[in-house]
Design brief:
With 321 residues, the chain is an alpha+beta fold. It has a single domain, classed as Acetoacetate decarboxylase-like (Beta Barrel). Helix content is 19%, strand content 35%. The strands form 3 sheets. Strands 1, 2, 3, 4, 5, 6, 7, 13, 14, 15, 17 and 18 form a 12-stranded mixed beta sheet that branches. Strand 8 and strand 9 form a beta hairpin. Helix 1 packs across helix 6. The longest helix is centred in the N-terminal third of the chain and has 14 residues.
Length: 321
C-alpha cells in the first residue's frame, strides 16, 4: 500500500504539484479545520431519523420543506482516504444521452492529463463525513458539457448508499444498500463491495496499490467539473440547478493511477446497459479531501479555479464559523 505518513515505510510520496499551491499552508490548514469543525456527530445522528421520517412524506411536501429550509446553508463535506474512481467508455451514446437533463451533451474526457479522451461515465466509490450524513456512497456520473455555461459537468445518474440521501428527483430516502464496503488491507489492496437492496446495482472490486503512481489529473474534469454537478436519470427534476463544491484546487492536482492489470472487477452492474464491460482508467486518492457545499443543491457563481480558490480562502480566513 502507498504510505502517506512516511513513518516506518520509507519516504512518503510527494502529494503536491510542481506549481505553487493556490492556498498557502496556513490557509489550507485553516480551511481544513473549518470544514472539520462544521461536522458535529451528534447532529448527524439526529438528522438520520429525521430524514427517514421526511422520506415518508409526499414529494410535493418534501420539496416545499426543502424550499423553505432554515439554518446554515453550507455544510462540511469530507471524503475519506482511498476513494476510488473507475472510468468506463460509453458504448451506447443514445441510451446514455437519454439520462442527461435538458441542456447537456456527452463530452469526451480522461481522468488523467495525459489520457486519451473518451465519451465516458465515471463510477466513484467513497466514504464521506458531512454535516448532515456519514457513510459509504457509490455514484455513477455521466460526463457532459452544459450547453448554457459550456462547463464540463459531472451528472449523477445513479447512486447507492448505506446512509440517508437526498436528490431532486426522489427526495429524501433511507439507506439503499444491503452491503456497503470500501476498505483497505495490509496487503496493499483497496476492496469494494456495494450491493443495493432496492435495485440490481452491484459493484465488487479489488485493486492493488503496489504499482500505483501519482499522475497529474485533467484539470478541466476535476476542477471545472466539481464546480458544476447535476442530476440525471431517475434523480433529475425539472427546475433543479447544478451545484458546485468549494475546495483548494490543490486537492485535484493529481491522484494515484492504478494499472488496469492491478484492478479486478468481479462484478459491476452500474450503467451496464450503455457502458463497456471493463473500465479503461482507475484513480485513487490516498488522502482526505475537504469541501464545503450547500446542504441542498443550489447554483453558485463560482466557475473557475481562481474563483473557487478565493472562495476557499474566504472560508479559511473566517473565524466566526
Amino acid at each position: 500500500m502507498v504510505p502517506i505518513d512516511g513513518e516506518g515505510h520509507g519516504p512518503a510520496p510527494h502529494l503536491t504539484t510542481e506549481q505553487p499551491p493556490v492556498l498557502s499552508p496556513a490557509e489550507l490548514h485553516r480551511f481544513v479545520t473549518t470544514t472539520e469543525d462544521m461536522i458535529e456527530p451528534r447532529e448527524v445522528a439526529a438528522l438520520f431519523g429525521r430524514a427517514e421520517m421526511l422520506a415518508r412524506l409526499p414529494m410535493p411536501v418534501q420539496r416545499w420543506i426543502v424550499d423553505r429550509a432554515k439554518g446554515d446553508a453550507d455544510m462540511g463535506f469530507i471524503v475519506e482516504p482511498y476513494c476510488t474512481f473507475l472510468s468506463y467508455e460509453v458504448v451506447d451514446e443514445a441510451a446514455a444521452t437519454r439520462l442527461l437533463p435538458p441542456g447537456y451533451r456527452l463530452a469526451a474526457t480522461s481522468m488523467f492529463a495525459d489520457g486519451e479522451p473518451r465519451v465516458c461515465a465515471i463510477l466513484g466509490v467513497f466514504s464521506v463525513r458531512a454535516s448532515v450524513f456519514a457513510g459509504i456512497r457509490v455514484e455513477l456520473y455521466l460526463i457532459a458539457e452544459s450547453e448554457t455555461t459550456g462547463m464540463l459537468t459531472w451528472v449523477i445518474c445513479d447512486y447507492e448508499s448505506n446512509t440517508i440521501n437526498y436528490d431532486p428527483g426522489q427526495g429524501f430516502s433511507a439507506p439503499t444498500t444491503s452491503r456497503a464496503i470500501l476498505t483497505t488491507t495490509h496487503a496493499g489492496d483497496v476492496r469494494i463491495d456495494v450491493r443495493s437492496k432496492e435495485r440490481d446495482n452491484v459493484v465488487t472490486c479489488a485493486a492493488s496499490l503496489d504499482d500505483a503512481e501519482f499522475h497529474p489529473l485533467d484539470q478541466r474534469l476535476w476542477i471545472e467539473g466539481n464546480l458544476s454537478v447535476d442530476y440525471g436519470g431517475r434523480l433529475a427534476h425539472e427546475g433543479s440547478e447544478p451545484f458546485g463544491l468549494i475546495f483548494d484546487p490543490g486537492e485535484m492536482a493529481r491522484a494515484l493511477r492504478l494499472p488496469m492489470e492491478a484492478v479486478t472487477i468481479e462484478r459491476n452492474t452500474f450503467g451496464a446497459e450503455f457502458l463497456a464491460d471493463e473500465p479503461f482508467e482507475a484513480a485513487c486518492f490516498p488522502y482526505a479531501q475537504h469541501f464545503v457545499t450547500s446542504t441542498y443543491p443550489r447554483a453558485t457563481p463560482i466557475h473557475d479555479e481562481e474563483a473557487v480558490a478565493e472562495a476557499a480562502r474566504r472560508y479559511a480566513q473566517s473565524e466566526s464559523r
